[in-house]
Design goal:
By secondary structure, this protein is α+β, with helices and mostly antiparallel strands. It has one domain: Recoverin, domain 1 (Orthogonal Bundle), CATH 1.10.238. It contains 3 helices and 3 strands, in the order βααββα. The chain has a 3-stranded antiparallel sheet. This is Transcriptional regulator protein. It holds the Pfam family Phage_AlpA. It comes from Salinisphaera shabanensis E1L3A. InterPro entries: AlpA, Prophage_regulatory_activator.
């Protein structure tokens, strides 16, 4: 099993196509993975959770 890796916000934005404000709004609604604190003022997201989020979005397209 591969080791988990973390993605910083610019990468998450690029991979999801969402803005910072849209990401944080989706987190508040419980629709987007929560970030992991990695420092006093820094967060990152678990790459596999972002991959799963993207997969769910793709599956929603097929269900619509």
């Amino acid at each position: 099993m591969p080791k988990p890796s973390l993605l910083r916000l610019p990468t998450v934005k690029a991979r999801t196509g969402q803005s910072r404000s849209a990401i944080y709004a989706a987190i508040q609604r419980g629709e987007f993975p929560k970030p992991v604190p990695i420092g006093a003022r820094a967060v990152a997201w678990v790459e596999s959770e972002i991959d799963e989020y993207i997969e769910r979005q793709i599956q929603r397209r097929g269900a619509a």
